[in-house]
Amino acid sequence: MSSAPRDGEAGGAGQYLAESVGGRQIRETHAGPHLQESRLGRQQQEGEAGKQAAIAALRAALLSGDVVPGQRLVEAELAETFGVTRASVRAALIDLTAEGLVERIPNRGARVRVVTVDEAVAITECRMVLEGLCAAKAAEKATDDQIEALVEVGEQMRAAVADGEPMKYSALNRELHRLVREIADQPVAGELLERLHGQIVRHQFRLAMRDGRTHVSLPEHLAIIEAIARHDSDAAEEAARAHLRSVITALRETE
Fold it and tell me: Where is composition skewed (Basic and acidic residues) in this entry (predicted)?
């Protein structure tokens, strides 16, 4: 079992785990919903299907906070937890290492990669370009129904800020960005953004919890929605870029 994570690497978010995935205490008391759901089918998967199942389960656990930066990833425990073979877990960890979500430590195995603030800024600069592209394409392609869905999410975000619910706001934030990517129908950009998001989810959570951050973020997101609703691709791209510039400023303030 791993030692407690260092300050700034883990902790603080409801379902965050402080120990290795699959440990006895975690299975009994601390597993988040994604890990619990992954145990429903106990028939062991193997081969490519097993690898993809392990990748999907681990990525979901990273995004939900069920596993945290610096946490050790033990093959045997993950195989039991996700209902796949150890070979499938090993192959999944190789792929996730290539994505930058996992790192290999000599003589210590794998752990969730710890992303520094400087790295988070660099990743967000890449996101700025891709999110801008998706927003512009969404403005060109959005149907009335899709615009209605975006506006509805925006109203829910407004309510979450008014009610002082940063966790709900954070979830709606992710949903808004997902919808924009879906409307944009840019699969390559979407896949890249999913990978980049996974690497900095911990930093994004900390920003969401910062006092006053949602009041800054909300009008930025509403500006993206409004530009897409007007089918103004230039304004949508600039609104998305402006939002990510704001995120970069906030990240640098955490140093």
Answer: 25-40
The CA-atom distances, in angstroms, between 203 and each of 13, 51, 86, 199 are 12, 27, 30, 9
What three-state secondary structure class fits 112?
Answer: strand
The C-alpha atoms of residue 169 and residue 35 are separated, in whole angstroms, by 23
- Domain 117-252 falls in which CATH fold? Four Helix Bundle (Hemerythrin (Met), subunit A) (1.20.120)
CA distances from 50 to 78, 90, 139, 224 (A): 12, 10, 38, 39
User: CA-CA distance, 217 to 169, in Å (whole number)?
Assistant: 10
Confidence of residue 255 (pLDDT cuts 50, 70, 90): low
Tell me which H or E stretch contains 103.
strand 102-105
| Strand order through the sheet with 102-105 | 72-73, 109-112, 102-105
Secondary structure string (H, E, C) spanning 157-208:
HHHHHHCCCHHHHHHHHHHHHHHHHHHHCCHHHHHHHHHHHHHCHHHHHHHH
Q: Which residue has the tokens 């033990």?
A: 74
Torsion of CA 142, 147, 153, 157, to 10 degrees: 100
Segments making up each domain of the chain, as ranges:
24-112, 117-252
This prediction has a pTM of: 0.69
Q: What is the pLDDT of residues 190-225, one digit of tens each?
A: 999 988 887 887 787 778 778 889 999 999 999 999
Say if residues 176 and 221 touch (Cβ distance below 8 Å): yes
- Tell me the two tokens of residue 186: 């840019």
The letter for the amino acid at 168 is: K
So what CATH class is 24-112? mainly alpha
